[in-house]
């Protein structure tokens, strides 16, 4: 359940239920939702009914399951087109993909977590966690750390409070202190690494996409495997990745973040 849902009244609670349905990643029964919900049975049922009537959820009467509704799909598409960096970053991601032959990620941050808004598969695709539209942890991904590193102190503390610090691999930075030391190093060199911190064998070099005001509005990464390359080889491309990030940032300024007199 979202941390602030209670303070946002009925709307916050309804969105909390919507998040719960989406979080299962499959059609979900009322009993499954009830088992994990903080809301009483009658309250949960009322929210599900309202969300279904509004088209935010879809109910399969034959199977007795809920899934995200088509109205939500339309809203998600509008958000992707107007709020994500994906549309304007597309040609630059294509360029980086052609030049490296590796997996390319474009991500943004929401509530302290990473949202992968676009992806290019490697010339020889590698199976990994990420996919466009998927939410991932910030503290143990290259793109996540690249964005965390440029948050101001209050925003960083809020983001850190939302991290699970679950140890996915022996390389995972599993405490705020370890992560803060890493973020300091990232600011010093201007790029981040994933040293098999989220998935065994998966490594990357990631760069923040910075606005003119010094805000990280997103991040891109070149991702590969330890079987194919090394961190040193990926870092050798950091300068070019930064050039691509700067191109995306400039395009984003013209589109979404114009300078005001």
CATH superfamily of the largest domain: GAF domain
**What is the H-and-E element order?**
HEHHEEHHEEEHHHEEEHH
What is the structural class?
A: alpha+beta
> Mind describing the biggest β-sheet?
6 strands, antiparallel
How large, in whole angstroms, is the Cα Rg?
Answer: 20 Å
The average pLDDT score comes to: 91
Beta fraction of the residues? Answer: 15-25%
The name CATH uses for the topology of the largest domain is Beta-Lactamase
Please report the first level of CATH classification, the CATH class of the largest domain: Alpha Beta
Total domain count:
2
Outline type: globular
Q: Helical element count?
A: 10
User: Largest sheet, order of strands side by side?
Assistant: 6-5-4-9-8-7
Question: How many β strands by DSSP?
Answer: 9
Separation of termini?
42 Å
Low-confidence stretches are 1-6, 257-261
In CATH, the architecture of the largest domain is 2-Layer Sandwich
Secondary structure: helix percent: 40-55%
Question: Any overview of this molecule?
Answer:
There is one protein chain. By secondary structure, the protein is α+β, with helices and mostly antiparallel strands. The protein folds into two domains: 5-74, Winged helix-like DNA-binding domain superfamily/Winged helix DNA-binding domain (Arc Repressor Mutant, subunit A), CATH 1.10.10.10; 83-255, Beta-Lactamase, CATH 3.30.450. The chain is 44% helix and 20% strand. The chain is built from ten helices and nine strands. The chain has helices at 9-23, 30-36, 41-53, 70-82, 86-100, 142-148, 153-161, 176-189, 231-235, 238-255, and strands spanning 28-29, 57-60, 65-68, 103-110, 113-120, 135-136, 192-195, 202-210, 216-225. A six-stranded antiparallel sheet has the order 6-5-4-9-8-7, sandwiched between helices. A three-stranded antiparallel sheet has the order 1-3-2. The longest helix is centred in the last third of the chain and has 18 residues, at 238-255. The chain is globular, with a radius of gyration of 20 Å.
């Amino acid at each position: 359940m979202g941390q602030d849902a209670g303070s946002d009244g009925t709307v916050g609670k309804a969105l909390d239920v919507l998040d719960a349905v989406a979080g299962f990643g499959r059609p979900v029964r009322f009993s499954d939702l009830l088992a994990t919900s903080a809301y009483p049975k009658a309250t949960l049922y009322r929210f599900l009914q309202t969300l279904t009537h509004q088209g935010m959820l879809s109910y399969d009467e034959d199977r007795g399951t809920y899934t995200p509704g088509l109205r939500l799909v339309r809203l998600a598409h509008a958000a992707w087109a107007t709020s994500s960096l994906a549309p304007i970053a597309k040609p630059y991601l294509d360029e980086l993909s052609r030049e490296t032959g590796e997996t390319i990620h474009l991500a943004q941050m929401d509530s302290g977590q990473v949202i992968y808004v676009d992806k290019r598969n490697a010339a020889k695709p590698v199976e990994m966690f990420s996919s466009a539209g998927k939410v991932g942890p910030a503290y143990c991904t290259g793109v996540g750390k690249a964005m965390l590193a440029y948050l101001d102190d209050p925003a960083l503390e809020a983001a850190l409070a939302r991290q699970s610090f679950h140890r996915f691999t022996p390389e995972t930075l599993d405490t705020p202190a370890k992560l803060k030391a890493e973020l300091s190093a990232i600011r010093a060199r201007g790029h981040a690494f994933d040293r098999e911190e989220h998935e065994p064998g998966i490594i990357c070099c990631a760069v923040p996409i910075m606005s003119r005001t010094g805000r990280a509005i997103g991040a891109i990464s070149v991702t590969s495997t330890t079987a194919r390359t090394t961190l040193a080889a990926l870092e050798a491309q950091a300068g070019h990745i930064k050039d691509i990030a700067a191109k995306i940032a400039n395009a984003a300024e013209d589109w979404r973040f114009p300078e005001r007199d």
